[in-house]
Design brief:
The chain is built from 19 helices and 18 strands. The chain has helices spanning about 30-40, 50, 75-85, 105-110, 125-135, 135-140, 140-150, 170-190, 205-210, 215-225, 240-245, 265-285, 285-295, 345-355, 405-415, 425-430, 500, 535-550, 555-565, and strands at about 20-25, 45, 95-100, 115-120, 200-205, 260, 305, 330-335, 335-340, 365, 365-370, 380-385, 390-395, 470, 485-490, 505-510, 515, 520. It is globular.
Length: about 575
């Protein structure tokens, strides 16, 4: 598989190595604590395969009929997958977090066969408590997810799992218990050595052990992975009030006790249906799989049940579509003119609509070209209505900066604006004396509007903070390697220290993130007439996508053709 990525299998200490896979038995198992703790010593990738593949992608965890490694992919799909996998390799070793892969678990592990795995576990009642506290069953539409997975279990390859997911209409605690058990069983099944006896290097990190002694847990993991711990814990913003945390993506509230805020009946239903599902699995799956999963699903007795807190639930976001923004414009910063505002969701939707009308669909066979259209409940703010054939923005987020934007989407927005993206050196110079970030390290728990309080229209807002930005340049690479572009700055969900702002990080052209957006710059004498028309941008994008279906070429050569097409002007 390494050869597929254009990577050598030799043991040269300077050569990229396979990433560490952090695999949760379910969501809410402490994966963000792990990521935040290791961020300064291990480059991070948050669910790149689960989140960035569309439902129609053959390898997507959300595909109703999940496929295996032999799935047929179009040219864009093959190119994206090869670049995405290569992006995970490097020194220092990268950390890839994936949770709730369900029937895509074996495929993901097959794509990264040399990766050691960290299995993140948590007692089922602890998971259920976290779901109940944040209303996640409803917010994340797990009722629909249950039905999709019950159907997937009846496909020929996974029919052994059909008895574990009855096609009924269970209440939430029952369905949650079943899903927790099935995901753990699928993970154990994927990690069970095959006929050749190949065994992956695995270690288990228990959420309960982390709560009891996080320093010892982290130290033991660092020894196992052969990495050095950060000299001190990463800086974190004060924890948000519970009502705020429920409507954001913050995970900053420190825990030092094992308390489950559940009604006794709910806790009993979850525990019972986890045990019942594993019991059924013992009759249809191999003993090693069920024994491994059973070991991961213990610990309910460690929790103290408390009456659920009667807290007032905050609204997801007060609508802000009438908010007055400074007029967009360019302001001198060092030797360049910087756009005073990050590109907003509304501005990005305008470009997406124009490109769609010009014949450039964003998603082809589950592979995204310009943006990753996540559900609103998962942080997506840009949504495509297949009936209306139009892009829209989540109400109240029109003036928030656009994220989940690929470098291709960012540079297309720059070309359409008669601007460009800054280089990393230019960004570093411009932010050298910038004030501390106003929104970083989960201080808000999400993005804030692009207009920064206390700054006027003649100033650059959020020069640092709110989102990291895509850069115009990236690390040197050969024609055999995918092109990567630098990311710069601090985002709402990353540390805001000067060291972290200046840290060197990069990503492949079709990658995207909930913490990366778009900032435009111009040379002082750049006229607006240098902008490319939407039909010209559409022509260049489509021509590149068509080339991917043609004769096989090195990944870097294909990427260079795209970069040239979108940055060469008219």
């Amino acid at each position: 598989m390494a050869a597929m990525h254009g990577l050598s299998a030799d043991l040269d200490p300077m050569h990229p190595v396979a990433p560490v896979l952090a695999l949760g038995i379910f969501e809410r198992v402490g994966s963000n604590w792990l990521s935040d703790s290791l961020r300064t010593v291990m480059p991070q990738h948050n669910e790149p395969l689960r989140q960035q593949l569309g439902r129609d992608h053959p390898l997507s965890a959300l595909n109703p009929s999940p496929a295996g490694l032999d799935a047929e992919l179009g040219g864009l799909g093959r190119h994206h997958l090869a670049c995405a996998l290569s992006d995970l390799y490097g020194r220092p070793r990268h950390l890839v977090k994936e949770t709730n892969l369900f029937f895509a678990t074996s495929t993901v592990l097959g794509l990264l066969p040399h990766s050691p795995a960290v299995i993140l576990t948590r007692a089922p009642v602890g998971i259920a408590s976290s779901f109940a506290r944040g209303g996640l069953w409803t917010r994340w539409k797990y009722g629909e997810r249950y039905q999709q997975l019950a159907r997937a279990a009846r496909t020929p390859h996974w029919q052994d799992f059909a008895p574990l997911l009855p096609q009924d209409d269970p209440e939430a605690p029952v369905a949650l218990g079943r899903l927790i058990a099935v995901n753990a069983l699928l993970l154990a099944h994927a990690l069970t050595p095959g006929p050749a006896g190949c065994r992956r290097n695995c270690t288990v990190v228990s959420y309960e052990e982390h709560v009891r002694d996080s320093s010892a847990t982290l130290a033991a993991l660092a020894r196992h992975l052969g990495i050095e711990l950060p000299p001190s814990p990463p800086a974190r913003a004060p924890g948000l009030p519970a009502t705020a945390a429920e409507s954001t993506f913050a995970t900053t509230r420190h825990k030092d006790t094992l308390i489950a805020e559940l009604e006794p009946r709910e806790a009993e239903l979850v525990s019972h249906h986890v045990a019942t599902t594993v019991g059924i699995a013992e009759r249809v799956l191999d003993p090693q799989t069920t024994a491994t999963a059973s070991g991961w699903l213990t610990g309910d007795d460690l929790y103290e049940l408390h009456e659920p807190a009667r807290r007032k639930r905050a609204a997801a976001r007060m609508p802000q579509d009438g908010q007055r923004l400074p007029a967009p414009g360019y302001r001198p910063v060092t030797r360049l003119s910087w756009r005073n505002l990050l590109v907003t969701n509304l501005e990005m939707a305008e470009l997406l609509n124009d490109l769609h009308e010009a014949g450039v669909p964003n998603t082809r066979g589950g592979t995204n070209l310009l943006v990753c259209p996540m559900p609103h409940e998962r942080g997506g703010r840009l949504h495509f209505d297949s009936g209306k054939q139009r892009w829209s923005v989540s109400r109240g987020y029109e003036s928030h900066p656009a994220y989940w934007v690929t470098w291709v989407g960012a540079v297309a927005r720059a070309a359409w604006s008669g601007a460009r993206l800054p280089t990393r050196a230019e960004a570093l110079e411009a932010t050298f004396s910038a004030p501390p970030p106003a929104n970083c390290a989960y201080a808000v728990g999400d993005t804030s509007p692009v207009a920064e309080p206390g700054r006027g229209s003649g100033q650059v807002h959020h020069l640092v903070g709110n989102l990291q930005i895509w850069c115009d340049d990236g690390p040197d690479s050969t024609d055999a390697e995918p092109i990567r572009k630098y990311l710069f700055g601090a985002a709402w969900n990353t540390p805001g220290t000067k060291q972290e702002i200046a840290a060197v990080r990069s990503r492949y052209l079709l990658g995207s993130s909930r913490g990366v957006g778009v900032r435009l710059v111009r040379e002082p004498d750049t006229p607006a007439c240098t902008a490319l028309g939407v039909w010209e941008i559409a022509h260049r994008l489509n021509r590149w996508v068509e080339e991917l279906d043609g004769p096989t070429r090195p990944l870097g050569e294909l990427d260079r053709r795209l970069v040239t097409a979108l940055t060469s002007g008219s």
